[in-house]
Write a structure and sequence with these properties.
The protein has 478 residues and is α/β, with parallel strands linked by helices. Among the domains are: 82 residues, Arc Repressor Mutant, subunit A; 242 residues, Aspartate Aminotransferase, domain 2 (3-Layer(aba) Sandwich). The protein is 40% helix and 13% strand. It has 15 helices and 16 strands. The chain is globular. Bound molecules: pyridoxal-5'-phosphate. The site of pyridoxal-5'-phosphate (PLP) has 15 residues, from α6.
Length: 478
């Protein structure tokens, strides 16, 4: 595929421009922004676009060729190198979290796309669809607009399920059914943050969907320092002092990508700081539903300033595109208005389908099966990679592999790609113009896309071999 319009984003920092360009090429290949066979822009074009010298671009390309990422031929141009194993490249992904899984193949293993494992959802969803479609009394409302006056029964069912699964009382009056957690985030930001000069904080590594959303909305996004337990309360307080933010976005349970769980004490401290400083907390709990114990939610600790985001993509099925938002009481009407402006309402058949699956017990059956499968996969991962400090909580469905100071994560990801395994690198989770701090260098491994545990074990084994071999001398961080 020809992609001569690709323009890399160079991280600011002490590294010379040519090295920053080679790193950006590695990042783009690892995250799927560039695919094997893509053509790089001509040196002069890219130099002009990046406002750097043609010499720096040429040196950057040369370094990427030395790293085995690009290939060049006289008069042909510069291309992303195809992997030695032809099938290792796999299909071109759309992004680290949204890419469709690669087809199961003996030698290609997808571990970047963070989806839920297949545990029989398909059959359960089809059954619920057939039941709804064949019952003339079902509330599909296919030819009229639905909305707030009409979906009370579905909201009541969904709110009851949130109360049970998330361990938090949810009122149907304040619940908005959205098209996925990503739309709930959009509405929360629109409701909590002014459109002009709005400032949002989030962890120094964050789900790319957060940053893409805040950037698209024209909001300034600032990072908050994290350690292996998540966002550090004192760093949040300091960031509030420096940036006067309107909101902070957090994923307290199974933070994406580090899989950390924010301890209860930190939740309490962060709530108190947010309350004292009048900062809204947007809690994204898409992974929290995989966990059967329930640490307190921000909506319980700081109800007047917290937005709770629910989702089913990580515990049931992403394709249904259903999620939920519970806004603070005094913001509930504004949030409902926002949904109306964006979308009128969420698809009535999808809303009815989720309600049907909750009422029939199918949603609970799937959730139990996903939790059990996630736990088995986590055990497998810890057995294989535990000695390298893998953080693989029982229910998360993904794990964080710290690479520390020894490896460049892009080099590890390229080695993995050449071995037929696609992983997600730390830099895909960095805020614009920020790099991953040393203690948060690593890659995220998603366990969901593997069709079965045997194939997952095969992929984990390949990563183990790479770790055992260690970084090539030229790729080591000096
Ligand atoms: C932290 C987090 N929030 C939200 C989403 C998107 O959820 P949904 O599919 O419900 O929009 C993702 C997807 O990867 C995610 O990792």
């Amino acid at each position: 595929m020809i992609d001569t319009m690709w323009t890399p984003e160079l991280l600011e920092g002490p590294a010379p421009k040519f090295r920053a360009l080679a790193d950006a090429i590695g990042r783009a290949i690892a995250s799927g922004g560039l695919a094997p066979g893509d053509q790089l822009p001509p040196v002069r074009d890219l130099a002009w676009r990046l406002k750097i010298s043609p010499g720096a671009v040429a040196r950057g390309y040369k370094l990427a060729i030395e790293r085995g990422q690009l290939s060049a031929g006289v008069g042909r141009g510069t291309f992303v190198r195809a992997s030695d194993a032809p099938e290792a490249a796999g299909p071109r992904p759309a992004g680290p979290d949204s890419a469709p899984p690669a087809p199961p193949h003996a030698s290609w293993l997808e571990m970047a796309n963070n989806c839920v494992p297949e545990v029989g959802q398909d059959a359960e969803i089809r059954k619920a669809m057939i039941k709804l479609a064949s019952d003339p009394r079902s509330a599909l409302r296919l030819t009229t607009y639905g909305g707030r006056d009409w979906d009370f029964a579905e909201r009541e069912t969904y709110a009851r399920w949130i109360s049970e699964v998330a361990g938090m009382e949810a009122s149907p009056d304040r619940l908005i059914i959205t098209s996925g957690a990503q739309q709930a985030l959009h509405i929360a930001l629109r409701t909590a943050v002014p459109t002009r000069d709005g400032v949002v904080l989030t962890g120094v590594l964050s789900h790319p969907g957060f940053v893409e959303m805040t950037t698209m909305l024209g909001l300034r996004t600032e990072p908050v320092a994290m350690d292996d337990q998540g966002v550090i309360p004192a760093a949040f307080d300091e960031a509030c002092r420096r940036h006067s933010p309107d909101a902070i976005i957090l994923t307290p349970t199974y933070h994406n990508p580090t899989a950390s769980v924010l301890p209860v004490r930190r939740r309490v401290e962060i709530s108190a700081i947010a309350q004292a400083r009048g900062v809204a907390v947007i809690e994204d709990d898409v992974y929290g539903w995989l966990e059967s114990s329930h640490p307190p939610h921000f909506a319980q600790l700081y109800p007047e300033g917290s937005y709770y985001i629910a989702g089913i993509s990580k515990c049931l099925a992403a394709g249904l595109r259903v999620g939920g938002l519970i806004a603070p009481q005094h913001k509930a009407a504004a949030a409902a208005r926002c949904l109306r402006v964006l979308n009128y309402h969420t698809s009535t058949p999808m809303t009815a389908l989720l309600a049907e699956m909750i009422s029939s017990g199918a949603a609970d059956r799937i959730l139990r099966a996903v939790r059990a499968e996630a736990a088995a996969r986590a055990v497998l991962a810890r057995e294989t990679l535990g000695q390298w400090g893998l953080r693989a909580p029982d229910a998360a469905n993904f794990a964080w592999l710290p690479l520390g100071a020894k490896w460049r994560s892009n080099d590890f990801a390229m080695r993995a790609l050449n071995a037929g395994v696609r992983v997600a690198v730390d830099e895909s989770y960095c805020l614009p113009r920020h790099a991953a701090p040393d203690h948060l260098r690593g890659v995220r491994l998603a366990f969901g896309p593997a069709p079965d545990r045997e194939i997952l074990a095969e992929g984990l084994g390949r990563l183990k071999s790479i770790l055992q071999e260690g970084p090539a001398a030229s790729a080591m961080i000096s």
